[in-house]
Amino acid sequence: HPILAEIIAIYLNINNIGYIIPINHLECINWNIDEILDLLKDYNFRVLDKKSSLHAAPQLSYTDIQHTIPPLDKHTTQAHIWYYRKFPQTKVNKMIPIGKHLERCNNKYNDIIGYTPGKTNEYVNDILLPTLQKLEQNGLKINDKFDTYFTTKNKKYSIKENHIYGWYNPYTTTGRPVNNFNGINFVGLKHGTGERDCFTPKNDYFIEMDYDSFHPYLIANMIGYNFKDYPYNELAKVYFTTDNPTPEQYKESKVLTFKQIYGGVFTQYLHHPFFRGIQDYTDKQWDKFQKDGFVVNGLFRKITKENFPDITKYQLFNYLIQAKETGHNFEILKIINGFLKDYKTNVVLYNYDAFVFDFCEDEYDSIFGILKNIVMSDFPISIKRGKHYGALCKV
Hints:
The protein has helices spanning 33-40, 50-56, 78-86, 98-112, 122-138, 146-149, 214-223, 231-240, 247-263, 273-292, 313-340, 364-375, and strands at residues 9-14, 17-22, 44-47, 61-64, 140-142, 159-160, 163-164, 168-169, 178-181, 184-185, 199-200, 205-211, 294-296, 302-304, 346-350, 354-359, 381-386, 393-394.
């Protein structure tokens, strides 16, 4: 994990000549990292991974170019291949000859410099990546039950001093970050199996703020519709032609609604303005996609026919929903991070429709109400609390 990695050297290329400044390498006279970074702090660096760079040296300024250039081949040398295969469980970069690191960096530089980066996506660069980096650095505390439920590829990759660090990948098909690192899918932790019991707060308890009926509300916002009642209750009245849906009908309403959100509206419900709005919005975006060859999602990223030649109309609609969800959530997370910067309480997990806070009891009276208002500024939420992640109960 980038937060557990260390800088062993800094590569510079001046007038097409590569140089290595050793920081922590066994065969070199090493320079002081703080002095070197102090010299570099007035520059802005274009990097292939801003999130990892912020973990390594947060005092520097970065512009991410990974989303603006074509994918690059992985750069390596025979020495790197040999060491990584021979010692897969060891940090071997200190063992690899420094000259081989110089060779590898020269190859990477020559590849990157051949591309003129496209326009920077300011949302990705200024909001999404810094927010994910702050989320990752908080980590989750684990207890002695962890080894019973999880087998990591290598504990050293993401665990230190009983804390495990997740890694969010924002470069997915839909733009919705996934957190699957070192053999653990943090957004897919199962309920009721005991595996959630492994994660405990560093402070006093967890509080989860979870959006209710998130996608129906998001879609209503996208199409300009306002629910007059709780979404599934209002739609149950349509499905079952009743003013008082039963608990069973309410449950079935969720199933019917999700089928239509993700698979296309049923003809018999097109008379309702919510479903009529979904159909009109889907048709409009599909027509634009066919005519222009792309649409722009809520993260200011293009979904193109070139990249998605087999996409269907309803898949396109779902990609747009997930981008809308991600955009909303990271605007909220940015505000939360700014508010919590001087507090012990922090956000330790993001699960698409929920934020999990590691809460300090001494701060509860001062900040809980403010955090609640930030999260529910656009959509209603439910709140859970527990002494560990598996013990969350509604409050």
